[in-house]
């Protein structure tokens, strides 16, 4: 096995428990126009996608007018930031994990389907932004997850290969992107699983 030189984290559902914030914020706006992403729809095929992709799917599936996508997206992002300002706090386990990786000279990055403004806002509130070596958002790619482009860009910026990289993901689309990148993939079901113990089997010496 190659030496691990970088660990890349998804953000929503991995480092920050923000999936419900995005779901709540988008539905608040959609309901003004008489539309909704039901819980079943969300869990079945919408979770982990960018807001733009979700809106396009709603247009294709239920006829959401395309000319209001931009308005919905802007209002949704503003609402998400307001929710995050109330609910986003540092997670000590995550801060310890990132600090330990940096101590081991392992580069750390976040790769997300969220936009840069929201991402930087949440990571700042979580006390993690200044520790990152790379940050890739959906505004840095031509195709978001499940396309692996975002992860490949992050690796290129860090100067590491897929064999030298570990990716931590939670959503089906994120996991698809991570696996397609060729890196080692570690999956989680909640932010509480993201600890030193999680990477014990793939990053030698992480507990030392």
TrEMBL record:
Its cofactor is Mg(2+). Keywords: Magnesium, Metal-binding. GO terms for molecular function: catalytic activity; metal ion binding. It holds the Pfam family HAD_2. Signal peptide: none annotated. This is Unannotated protein.
């Amino acid at each position: 096995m190659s030496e691990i030189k970088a660990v890349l984290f998804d953000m929503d559902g991995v480092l920050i428990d923000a999936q419900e914030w995005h779901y709540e914020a988008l539905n608040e706006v959609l309901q003004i126009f008489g539309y909704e992403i039901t819980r079943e729809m969300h869990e079945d095929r919408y979770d982990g996608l960018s807001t733009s992709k979700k809106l396009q799917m709603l247009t294709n599936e239920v006829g959401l007018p395309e000319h209001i996508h931009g308005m919905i997206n802007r209002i949704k992002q503003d609402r998400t930031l307001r929710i995050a300002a109330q609910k986003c706090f540092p997670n000590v386990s995550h801060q310890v994990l990132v600090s330990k990786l940096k101590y081991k000279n392992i580069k750390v990055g976040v790769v997300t389907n969220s936009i840069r403004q929201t991402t930087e806002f949440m990571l700042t509130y979580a006390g993690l932004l200044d520790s990152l070596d790379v940050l890739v958002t959906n505004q840095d790619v031509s195709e978001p997850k499940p396309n692996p482009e975002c992860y490949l860009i992050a690796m290129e910026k860090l100067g590491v290969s897929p064999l030298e990289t570990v990716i931590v993901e939670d959503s089906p689309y994120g996991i698809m992107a991570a696996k397609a990148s060729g890196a080692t993939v570690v999956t989680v079901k909640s932010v509480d699983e993201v600890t030193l113990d999680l990477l014990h089997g793939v990053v030698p010496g992480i507990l030392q």
